[in-house]
Amino acid sequence: TLAANVLGFVNADNVGGVGLEAKYNDVLEGTAGMTVTAKNGVGTDLLYQYEQYYDAENGNSLVLTMDVEVQSYLEKGLESMIDKFDAANGATGIVMDVNTGAIVAMASYPNYDLNEPGVVRDEALQKKLDKTLADLAGKQSEYETEEEYNEAVSKAKSEAMNTQWRNKCIDSTYEPGSTFKPITLAIALEEGVVSENSSFYCGGSMNVLGRGSPLKCWKYGGHGSQSLTQAVQHSCNVAFVNIGQLVGEEKFYEYAEGFGFIDRTQDTSQQLTAKTGIDLGGESGSIWWSEDVFCNPENLSQLAAASFGQTFNITPIQLITAVSACVNGGRLMKPYLVQSVEDSEGNIVSQTEPELVRQVISEETSATVRKILEQVVGDQKEGTGHNAYVAGYRIGGKTGTSTKTTEEIAGNKEYIVSFIGFAPADDPEIAILVLLDDPSSESGIYISGGQMAAPVVGKMMADILPYLGYEPEYTDAELENIDRPVPEVAGMSLAEAQRALTESGFKSRIIGEGDTVTDQLPRSGVVIASGSEVLLYAGQSPAPTQETMPDVRGLSYAEAVERLGDIGVYLSSGNSSTDAANLIVSGQSIAPGTAVEHGTVVDVTLYLNDTSMLGIY
What we know:
- The strands form 11 sheets. A 5-stranded antiparallel sheet has the order 5-4-18-17-16, sandwiched between helices. Strands 3-13-14 form a 3-stranded antiparallel sheet, with no helix packed on it. Strands 20-23-21 form a 3-stranded mixed sheet, with helices on one face.
- 32% of the residues lie in helices and 19% in strands.
- It is built from 20 helices and 28 strands.
- By secondary structure, the chain is α+β, with helices and mostly antiparallel strands.
- Helix 4 (68-85) runs antiparallel to helix 17 (449-467).
């Protein structure tokens, strides 16, 4: 299933059906060999000199920009997010090299098994299909012919197949919500209408010319007086509407085109669309207002909505490409997946070079955007993105929680929660965008990008950044809470072992009698939460009995460490916080009720329980 929605598959005729297989079918398939022979009128072969032989030619190979390790981290994170929050319509994620536009990882759920593309793999999708087929069966008598009924059944199955084959990173549009605010911020800074010294007041709502009712901020009662950095940290809608109005509708429209959301060369009076031009088939275009509607000085409601990311639609690939331009020095790069094409001998047939589409903002503006967005994650008190924080690393980003306008008009309430992050914040290499489509409220965690998506991106960063070679640089406060490797203490005296564990940031418990440590749990080198209790066995070994994995979701970080430690099981989060007392476990890698060995390490996802930041941001 790895990268299935990107790679695609070939059909029964060995022709590419979807994904890269379809886009590059002509490059991949090669040509069959053949012999051309002359025959006379009765079918007898003529002399051999009339025969011509054409050797078969192997197809070429694609070398991708994708990294299999990063792809696995992305997919693991998306799967955990879907599992925790029961997303009705799956999830989407992209990891991009911000400086080149190269796609490092890309995933879309539901997905499928590349070896069996005609089999529905996703349980939720299969349940929907089963219900549809059952409904059709119950109404079979209403069809005039059996052929009509069979066509309806076939259509239902085809829709399920197409759903799992889709790459929603490129072929689905959505309202980005507050993950669009970095773009509004970049526009305003570039135009000089705001600076880091600017201030804004939010009373909870504001009137907008052309809008029938006051526009509300997500925080009831408002944020009060705030600096520009605080307005971004708080994801204040009122502040961003004011920022958009300072830019003005015409200038904002120009930048929307500059960042790749509009193509004004199109001949349309209704709406303008644009595409990134990524080397995959089936890319959808954005859905944006026509210029005469948006640039109406008597109705600023479109400008207001656009400034905080609502009522227009773009694709995930468009958003991550544009935000990458905001933080990479202002350069909008064309995204791509194929690094090179090689022949069967390994010779390079063609090579893809990074393509600059245009310079959208200046290096100076981009540096300021990076600085402010780092405070959204790094400031544990003010930043709505604090759940993406990773000890030892500088990460910037923005949360997003958007409502589906079309569903809201129909009386339904569906959300897309998302987070876009980049690192290292001072000199970015990668950006990560994740989206969760219509999560359930039954998880007990507030539906928002900050509570649901940001922790997952933080976990991904904790895996990906060390893999890419970035070493953590811890502050003194971070050192108190980071996960640590357990030292080797077997063979030491009990006193020496306890001293070594204390120096490494662990507690200890002695089991057995004797003066020497004969065994230990966890084993040396295993990385677990700081402050965990390491078991020291004196004259005996760990019991062979298994334990039942408890449910630690909803417990505080400290409570989970203690609860697991009581049964000789350990916790690792890959994360840290200077506010560890308020960290809550939202997910665990081993399901409750699973039988586990003593010394097992369970990987958990944490979020900071800050009720003052609950809201739509």
